[in-house]
Amino acid sequence: MVRKLATKHEQILQHIENLEVGNKISVRQIAKELLVSEGTAYRAIKDAENKGMVSTIERVGTIRIEQKKKENFEKLTYAEVVNIVDGQVLGGREGLHKTLNKFVIGAMKLEAMMRYTGAGNLLIIGNRTKAHEKALEAGAAVLITGGFDTEENVKLLADEFQLPIISTSYDTFTVATMINRAIYDQLIKKEIVFVEDILTSIERTFFIETSDNVGKWFELNDETKHSRYPVVDDSLKIQGMVTAKDVIGVDRNLSIEKVMTKNPMTVNAKTSVANCAHMMVWEGIEVLPVIDDHHRLQGIISRQDVLKALQMIQRQPQVGETIDDLITNQFMNTTEAGGSTYRCEVTPQMTNHLGTISYGVFTTLVTEASSRIMRNHKKGDLVVENITVYFIKPVQLESILEIVPKVLEVGRKFGKVDVEVYNEGKLVGKALLMAQLIDR
């Protein structure tokens, strides 16, 4: 397991990571400093932006920002605020990388406003120059609504304190709504677990090279007691996977390339754990190699890692509610002699433009009811294979639905559920769901 020299792309990312937060970055500057082409520099900077290391702002440029930890997702940098509100930076560009902890709407008298405005805040206000000045002195950045400018002395003050003063053409209410929405979206993203959160990194991953023979598998097996290893070439690019099944009874001097499974299924760092679970269940895979954009090995993820993560997700408090949460939080369970029935009211969020229940919401109701009834039969999670909705009538706003799932068949690894949906005693929908079961 010889470590390879970093590529130019990796060297640029390392260079960007080592820059101080707040530094400006340009394609030309990176190309000149690291002796690479501008195309290579551009691609690496875009990759750094995707990884949350830099932020590009119109009329300002690309700035090194602090990478967010998961627990800090609900906080925005001033640079992100500029992007959200299509803003123009009037002063204090050096402070764009800073994180704001609260925003204050300046719709009161100056003295009262200053009682609520402090360090790390963002004051959202119109063309009140005195308030702009006082906010900066209190350690807060300023967002001026309505497309107004401010005085030169205020811009100089912003530069001195390294606190951004931003102008946007939107009104105060729209700006507050846009920022709230951005924070809310990030709260939902915070709950989603990705491969990068749980993978075994390349430094701790055991792998075999294409130049090795089958004997290498036995050496690693004695050392680690694992039975599955990725196979890579001399550039760490993934070439295959080799398991105990591949090497049993095989001559140990045979090349590993002769026995490995070529073109294995892989994932990248931004693949969701839920997606990994689906791949592993359907393909019967125990270990997935994690690769980067150039197909180089970054680490591995095992079925045990995925199951632990899925269980952790279920125990997490959901801070930002998704559409699925809004729908299923209304579920009321009534157990009767014939089995379980779930009741749910059709709210405005659940309807289409005609005011009747949307098809997507209907499938969510069917899936949730099926998941709940299957949990009564087997402790575990569902991976849905197929939903067939073969009858649905329009159901209008504020209707009370009764969802009646019936288990048709349940095996060790799969289940079939028939679901009927009623409104005021009349059948309004029928569906058949087939799913694989993941044991806890």
UniProtKB/TrEMBL annotation:
SUPFAM superfamilies: CBS-domain pair, HprK N-terminal domain-like, Thioesterase/thiol ester dehydrase-isomerase, Winged helix' DNA-binding domain
Superkingdom of origin: Bacteria
Domain CBS: 199-258, 260-318
Entry-linked Pfam families: 4HBT, CBS, DRTGG
Keywords tagged on the record: CBS domain
Protein name: CBS domain-containing protein
UniProt source species: Bacillus solimangrovi
